[in-house]
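To the structural biology subgroup,

Please find below the input and predicted structure for ABC transporter permease subunit, which we are adding to the shared reference set this quarter. The sequence is reproduced verbatim from the submission form. If anyone notices a discrepancy with their own records, reply to this email rather than editing the shared folder directly, so we keep one authoritative version.
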Amino acid sequence: MPRIFEISIQFLVACVGIIFVGAIPSLFNTVNGSFVNSTSYYETIKEIIQGISQYKSLTYDWNGVERDLFPFLFEPVFYSITILICALLLAYLVSTLFTFLTMLLPAKHRGKSKLFIYLFESLPDILIVFLMQFFIIYFYKKTNILLLNFVSLQEERAYLLPILCLAIFPTIQLYRLSMLLFEQELTKDYVYLAKMKGVSYYSVLLVHILRNATVSLFFQSKKAVWFMLSNLFILEYLFNIFGITRFLTQYMTPTIFTIGLLLFFIPIFILYNIAESIVKNVVSGGESL
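Predicted structure (tokenized):
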């Protein structure tokens, strides 16, 4: 099956699934004591499809005033996607760097490094966000220097601190996984062959093990995205970010909810497939021992 056809099928199935999920609340608009209302569910699906096909005419209620949904909806979607993608890239780069540095340590010291990371992982997400915000406020009061915007206020949007907070736990997850992948690669025959050829341990790590572990780590990072999505709403609330999750909770209609999810899903789907192609080409084009 051609790759483009496979991706197209995945995309269509995902979009249809999002439409079905967006209509689920109407399934439980029960009448006459029935458990589910399939008629309402099918009617809502039709309403969603009609809304997608006539998206230019969609409106939402803003304090009693009807406003056009588009192009306004692009703004919160782009804001949330920017934070999510940047946090994921940061987590991927930092976890890989930490893994590489840890693998350069003597074997007896690696366990201590991993133990510290695991203990840090046990801290609640909200506690870390509060501590970072508190530190910025405390530093500002002492020095009159604002290190970072810790809340979004009208046109002054917070980016760096939300990205850092959202990236913390995915970094730990990817670090744990990459450590496992690196240690597994160390036991493979090509590593022993490289040592017999006189290739330095540093070169084996940087050129060969890193390249071989990259693909597995990339695919596993998709799980980190789900974890980040579960924290995105809390993050947007704590930083007063008017992103897509806050918008959808304020304007929770099946059509707007579904369209919002689709607008959030489509860029991530495209970016992931582009990144997947790049990663496979880089790895397959690498030199072998």
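Summary notes: The two ends are 31 Å apart (CA to CA). The mean pLDDT is 79.

Regards,
Lab coordination
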